[in-house]
Amino acid sequence: MKHPRAVIAGGAALLLGGGLLGWHLYLDHTAYRPPTVALTHGECGGLLDGPEVAKVLGGAPRVYVHTEFRKADETTPASIRCSVNGEDGRLLIAEASFGGVRAGGDSLGAAEFQCTLDGKGTGYRAVVELNGANGQLLADGPGRELMGKVAGGFAERAARTRLGCTGGAEQLTVK
Amino acid sequence: MSGLATRWGRFLANRWAGRLQDPLVLPGVLVVAVAAAGFVGYRDWQDHRPVEGPGRSAYLCRLPTGPDTPLGRLLPDGDQDSEERTDSVLGHDPRSCVIRIDGRTVLTLTSVGRQGGLAMPSEVAKHPDARPFDTGLGASWPGGAAVAANCLTGKNKTNDYFELEIVAGEAVRTPGDGLQAGLEQLARAALDEPRKEQCS
C-alpha cells in the first residue's frame, strides 16, 4: 500500500455511495402506495367509470365523491357535476351542462355534444378539470389527449344515462 | 481494461495523495463526506414520504369514525375508505351519502324533507318485522333503520319534518350488541346533519 490514506478516502466514498443507493432502494421498496381511486361502484352515477379516469386520479387512501344533479326546469336544461379527489390532494371536477364550449389543455378536458330531448336539441358541453392541492389547474397535467378522453367518455355516459338524451351524445367533439 | 484502471488509479493517487499527507485533511474530508451523505439520505427520505398517509378518515358522511363511536363500531377494516354524497340542487329529492370501504358498501344514509304532520317514515311500512325505538318516530329492522324527526328551526323553513334512513351494506361489521342495535345507535347520532340540510 503506497497511499493508505487514498485507499481510506476512496473506500469511504464507495461505502457512502453504496449506502445511499441502498437507502434509496429500501425507501422505494417500502414506500406507501395508496390504493387506486376507482369509481366503479356507481359513484357519480357511473359517469366516471373508466380506465382513463383511474389513470388521471392515481391512488388515495381517503376518497370523497360529491355528486350534484340539477333537474331541468322551465329555463335551464338538466346538468350534472361531480368532484372526486385523487393522488396528492388533486381534485377532478367533471361537469356536463349547457353552454359554450371551452378549449382543452393539459389539465382540462373539454367536449361538446348535442342532446335531443323531447325532439328539441340542446348544445351541451362537458368539462373535466384537474386541480392540484392548491386549487389551481394542475401544473404538470396528464396531457391534452388523456384529458380529452376523460371528457369524451364522461359526456357520452352522461348523455346516455343521466341527461336522458334520446340519441345519446350526438356530434360529440373533443376540443 | 484493468491496465487503464490501474493507470488512472496511479494518476489520481499521484495527483491527490500528496495533499492527503497533511494529517488534518483526511479526517476533514471524511467528516464533510459523511455529513453530505447524511443530508442526501435525509432529503431522499423526505421525498419518499407520502403526501397522504394511510389511515381512516376522521369523519365519513360528517359522522365521527373513532373506535368508540356509533359509526366506528360498524366500519370494517380496510385500506381505502370513501364517501359519496349525492345532492339534487333543485327540488326536494332525497340526499344520500354512501360509505364504502375498499369498494364495498358499508352504509347508505338517505334523508328527505317532508311537509305536513310528523309521521312514521314510509320505509318502515315495507318491513313487517320492524321494531320501534326511542328516537323521534323511528323503527329498525335487521339491516336497516329509519327515523322521522321534526324540524326545530323557526319559520321560513321549507320542510316540516324529515326522514333519515340507514341501510347496511355487504361490508358492514356486526358490533358486539348486534347490527340492529348498532344501526339504532347510529340513527340517534346521525340526526343533526340531515336536520341542518333538510330544515333550513
Unreliable runs of chain A: none
N-to-C SSE string of chain A, H for helix and E for strand = HHEEEEEHE
What proportion of the residues of chain A is helical, as a percent range? 25-40%
Rounded radius of gyration of chain A (Å): 24 Å
What is the strand tally of chain A?
6
Largest Cβ-defined interface: A-B, 43 and 43 residues
The percentage of residues in β strands of chain B lies in 25-35%
> Order of strands across the widest beta sheet of chain B?
3-4-5-9-8-7-6
**Dominant shape of chain A:** elongated
Quote the average pLDDT of chain B.
86
- The quaternary structure here is heterodimer
Annotate the secondary structure layout.
The complex is a heterodimer of chains A (175) and B (200).
Chain A: H1 4-30, H2 51-57, E1 62-70, E2 79-85, E3 91-98, E4 108-117, E5 120-131, H3 144-162, E6 170-174
Antiparallel strand pairs in A: 1-2, 2-3, 3-5, 4-5, 4-6
Chain B: H1 2-16, H2 25-48, E1 59-60, E2 63-64, E3 81-88, E4 95-101, E5 104-114, E6 131-133, E7 137-141, E8 144-150, E9 161-168, H3 179-189, H4 192-198
Antiparallel strand pairs in B: 1-2, 3-4, 4-5, 5-9, 6-7, 7-8, 8-9
